[in-house]
Every structure is written in C-alpha cells, then in structure tokens.
Amino acid sequence: MGERALAVVRTGSGFERYHAQWGGDRLGQVLAGPPEEALRALATVAWQPRGSSERPFDRLDYLGTDVMYLVSGRVTVLLPVWAGFGADPTAGVLVRVETVAGCRAVRGACRFSRDLFHEALARDLVTPGLARELFALAVGLCVPPGRIHAGEEMGRF
Prior knowledge:
By secondary structure, the chain is an alpha+beta fold.
C-alpha cells in the first residue's frame, strides 16, 4: 500500500502538486535532518505531477494521503487527519509535526481515538456527528497549540 504522500511546492503564482505512492517513506529523513537534507531526501522520490492550484490544500484527500510535504524554501511536514465516521474524504485537518516522535504521537492518538469512537458507534452510544466532534476534541488535546491547520489557514504558509 505504501505511505502515500503529496508534495506541494510553492511557485510564483500558486502551488504545484505531486503525488508518490511511497513518498511517506522519507518522513524520518525529512524530520531528522537539517533543511537541506530534507530537500535531498524528497528529491529521491518518484513524484507524479498532479496539477497546480492557488492554495496548497485544494482537493486534498485526507483519507487517502498519509503525509503532505509543503515545500517553500524549506520543508514543512503535515499529517492529514481525516474527520472519519462517515465524513467526506476531503473533510479533515492538517497537523504540523517537526519530529519523528511527534509524528508517532499524533498517529497513535488518532488511531486510539478513532478506534474508541468506532466502538462507541457500534454500541450506539454516540451518533456519527458526535463521534466526529469528540474525535476533533481528542486530536486538539494531544497536539500542541498552533499545529492544527484547516481551510483558509493553510494559505498563510
């Protein structure tokens, strides 16, 4: 299946988008090294062009993307977090991570919370809408302030 990645590169007039089935495999190298090493690690990936857009997050599939690299002089790593529980694949947020440990913590917290709320749904304890709201609350509690980005906020990068 691979660690599906999206690289979004800032250009003079907007953003060029690239997809790679195995692009997320470079996540550790990108996070662990200095900025120039991050760019070198991403340069070794077999990226496929996906078009351009005015904003970096346009048409982002939060369910089908494991990591997003925003390249604008430096590399910013963002983990797409899908809202889940019946939501559209384009419903989600991006969580900025700066270390491998931070990445593992976010992914672990999301996995645990999603499993918990799926079980609550199966037992008819919550509705899908409430499960999404509780999941968003759980993600917000496990991520440092200022690292969750959604919608128009991404345009500030």
